[in-house]
Amino acid sequence: MQKKTAPEKYRPNTTIAHAGSNPADNQGFVNPMVVHASTVLFPNVATMLSGNQPYVYGRRGTPTTEALEDAMSTLEGAAGTKLTPSGLAAISLAMLSCAQSGDHLLIADTVYGPTRNLCDKVMRRYGVDISYYDPCDINGLGKLIRKNTRAIYTESPGSLTFEMQDMREIVACARAHDVLVMMDNTWGTSLYCKPLELGVDLSIQAGTKYIVGHSDVMIGTVSANERAWPALRAMHGDLGLHVGPDDVYLALRGLRTMSVRLERHMRSALEIANWLEKRDDVARVLYPALPSHPGHTLWKRDFSGASGLFSFELKPASDSSVHAFLDALSLFGLGYSWGGYESLALWAQPRSARSATTWEAAGPLVRLHVGLEDTRDLIEDLEAGFTAFHAAKG
Ligand SMILES: *Cc1c(COP(=O)(O)O)cnc(C)c1O
Fold it and tell me: In a mutational test of the pocket of ligand 1, which residue from 118, 154, 209 has the highest number of ligand atoms less than 8 Å from its CB?
């Protein structure tokens, strides 16, 4: 039997292969058991009343859910992690764990669209005040903090438009006002960005994306430091959130290969981003890993890699030429989500989803997820798109 590993002491690519795994406690099997469970039996009333049995009820946790939670906590350097049925559910859990009626939350203007919807519709309805802030204006952020501000919500880089936030400055500002910081770290993943090391209290991921990696499961994770963990843990239990064991298992299985997949996503995305940047029909490429990106220095400081998702702005063109571009693609599928092995494209329209800032761009924006395919095929696919784009422009 293998000895119990202590993944904290290893480098990230080793940690990701072993974190949360304990074959010695699992009859030698490398992977955890997939436990389908609601009821757990107790040997007698005294044990039932004592609360000392490790597992008491399916919803409260099983060896399967604990394996993924432990792996995520180790990777994130967290006091604890909770799993949710989707990435959006992870965001609502994190928000509900730190705000109540009468509190105020500051939300980056460039957040994932459904996060904004959650704030505007649900949080406001339950009496939580919401303000949006310019993700790149740290002085402006400080001025928005009120007596009842409980947390600053961040997402770096921002959805669709990839603005980098200065996480160190935001954390310093939050600390000075005794305010919590949440970060949606789906783009960076636990491998390329370590929010808790930057001082963030709650690190959120849509595991649906790179952790799962195969576009076949929806799951979310929230990892918390000591300060935020008790409230997160309690809210998760109170809400009754639970993820089915097969989905948890697939997420853990995906996690084990995330480092090799991400290396390829990054290499291919950089190649395609560089190729796009040289084209006359492209106005700019919004990918923090490119030296031309306004947030490149922040990315280099706080991230150790980039994932395969970025946007580019076309030179001004009609709606019908954007349609023609996207409809001519065959390897890049038209679809939501990202982080799977396959390439995706969509027409990004950030203008209507901004309230503290305005999206200034003369041309249309296309978001690409660069999958694991051969980049020569992907570039040929994009070339077909550009041919159709120009034909439609006439
Ligand atoms: C997709 C996504 C989410 C939501 O994840 P789901 O699993 O689809 O609910 C949250 N944040 C970001 C940045 C995302 O891209």
Answer: 209
